[in-house]
Write a structure and sequence with these properties.
- The longest helix has 14 residues.
- Strands 6-7-8-11-10-9 form a 6-stranded antiparallel β-sheet. It has a two-stranded antiparallel sheet with strand order 1-2. The protein has a two-stranded antiparallel ribbon with strand order 3-4.
- It is elongated, with a radius of gyration of 23 Å.
- It contains 8 helices and 12 strands.
- With 258 residues, the protein is α+β, with helices and mostly antiparallel strands.
C-alpha cells in the first residue's frame, strides 16, 4: 500500500520534491511540469502504457492550479508524449508508428516490425453507388456500384489508422466475402490485383466528430491524412483515405542526391 505524507501519497511527495528541485528556473509553471513528466518517462519511472497520476493528484502534490496541470498534460498529449482517454486517465503514449513516405506497405507488417500487436475492426464492408467523382476515376458508369470498406487498425489496442477505401469490383472478385479482421485489405488486393504503381497525397486535417469517436481522440486533435491511389497494369484499382491521429503516427523518407 502506498503511504501518505501530510495527506499526499508517497509518489506525490516524491514528485513534489522533484518539482521543487527544478523550480528555480524562469520557465513558467506549466513548462516545468512538462519537463518533470518527460524527465520521469526518460528515466523509466513511467513506461509506455503506464498511467500517470490524475490531474487532482498533480494539483494536490505540486500545489499548482488545475489549469496549469491541465495545460501541461494537454500539451504533452498534443506532442505525442502522453495519451489522454476521456473518463479513464492519462497514459504514457506508445512510440509513434512510422511509414515510408514514398513506399506502400501493409500496416500490419509495419506494426509487427515494431514488435507490437496489430488487429483490425471492420466498421462496414459493402457495395454502394459512389457518385461521379469516384466512379469517374475508375472509368465506370456513375450508376454502377463499387466496393467500399472502412476499417480501423490498432497497434496494441490503440487505434492508429482509419482506412476508408473504394475498390473497382472488376479487379477484386470476392471482396465482400473477405474477413478483413484476419488478413488486411493490402494482402487481399496484392493477390487480386498486384500493385503496379501508387500515389500518395498527404495533408494535415481535423477529424470529423465520427472519425474522432472511432479513433478515440478529441475533435481538436490534428490528424495526418494520406490520400492513396494504387494501380495494377495501368488500371486504377483502389482509392483510399487513410486517417492517422497526429500524436500516434508519422511519415518518414530517405533521399539520396547524386
Amino acid at each position: 500500500m502506498t503511504g501518505t505524507v501530510n495527506g499526499v501519497g508517497a509518489e506525490g511527495a516524491d514528485l513534489a520534491r522533484l518539482y521543487a528541485e527544478g523550480a528555480a528556473g524562469s520557465a513558467p509553471a506549466y513548462q516545468r511540469v512538462k519537463d518533470l513528466v518527460v524527465e520521469q518517462i526518460t528515466r523509466g519511472r513511467w513506461s509506455e502504457g503506464d498511467a500517470l497520476p490524475s490531474e487532482s493528484q498533480f494539483v494536490e502534490s505540486l500545489g499548482l492550479s488545475r489549469m496549469t496541470i491541465n495545460r501541461a498534460l494537454r500539451e504533452l498529449s498534443t506532442q505525442g508524449v502522453l495519451r489522454r482517454v476521456m473518463g479513464v486517465g492519462t497514459f504514457v503514449a506508445p512510440r509513434k508508428g512510422s511509414s515510408a513516405l514514398a513506399e506502400i506497405h501493409d500496416i500490419a507488417d509495419e506494426v509487427r516490425r515494431r514488435d507490437h500487436r496489430h488487429r483490425a475492426e471492420v466498421v462496414f464492408l459493402r457495395e454502394e453507388t459512389a457518385g461521379p467523382d469516384i466512379s469517374g476515376q475508375f472509368g465506370l458508369d456513375p450508376r454502377r456500384a463499387v466496393f467500399r470498406s472502412r476499417v480501423v487498425h490498432f497497434e496494441d489496442d490503440v487505434p492508429i489508422q482509419l482506412e476508408d477505401r473504394y475498390v473497382d469490383p472488376r479487379f477484386a472478385p470476392g471482396y465482400l466475402d473477405q474477413d478483413f479482421t484476419r488478413r488486411t485489405l493490402f494482402t487481399f488486393l496484392s493477390e487480386a490485383a498486384p500493385l503496379g504503381r501508387g500515389e500518395h497525397i498527404v495533408e494535415a486535417v481535423l477529424p470529423s466528430a465520427e472519425e474522432a469517436e472511432i479513433l478515440g481522440i478529441a475533435p481538436s486533435e490534428p490528424c495526418l491524412l494520406i490520400h492513396r491511389r494504387t494501380w495494377s497494369q495501368d488500371a486504377l484499382v483502389s482509392i483510399a483515405r487513410l486517417l492517422h491521429p497526429g500524436s500516434r503516427y508519422r511519415l518518414q523518407g530517405t533521399f539520396d542526391q547524386h
